[in-house]
Write a structure and sequence with these properties.
single chain; mainly alpha; Helix Hairpins; 2 domains; extended
Amino acid sequence: MVKLKAVIFSILETESHKSYIGRAVNILIVSLIILNVGAVILSTVDTFAIQHTEWFERLEYFSVVVFSIEYILRVWVSNIRRGYQHPILGRLKYMLTPMALIDLFTIIPFFLVIGTSIDIRFITLMRFMRLLRIFKLKRYSHALHTLGKVVTEKKEELVIVFFTIIVLMIMASSLMYLIEHHAQPNKFSSIPATMWWAVTTLTTVGYGDMVPITPFGKILSAIISMLGIAMFALPAALMSSGFTEQIQLQRRRRKMHRCPHCLKEINGEDLK
């Protein structure tokens, strides 16, 4: 039983996929995720959904079976991990991790709506929750795994940037409301209504349904537009620097070796 658990653990863990079985499981799950996301998108096209209803249902049944087995096996072998060794508390701890919750939420909607007479809007919402399956790709994609690490490493800086953007949006909305309310009471009727203008201006989308007509309003709009370009460039710069740092770190790790005597990691270039 212990050996079987170790084999299953090695198959399900992305970094340990060196066997043909592991690669086959990877390909199967990734293909199912892509097919499910495509099915949810295509099911919103009425003519296509009517013609291929049976195909969609078969895909859903098969996917739920595969994803349920995957989830059960992951929970079963999770206590092999360091920090999850306890047979009960360890598995419960694993079940509360983000990826385990995503695995669970991708199969729950099927069991909630099957054989029940729930409101059609709730059923539709549950079906759209199948789109969460796209987040399962993070486990099987090295690029998405790197993206997750970058966001984790830069989370404090990103929070500060987005908080600054929100403050700027509130200030811009308040000022524009004071300037334009008397000239356009129907469009700039309140600060919350003016926030739509602030969002489209800060993101430089310029939707055009709310445009200032007073001189001071136009000046403020120009200033906010330029600030928006600068502010929204900051997250891109943070993510770019984070990717560079992660790639350099991964390259250094590939060059690391362990000393045969003390088992400490040493740089491969030092061995030359």
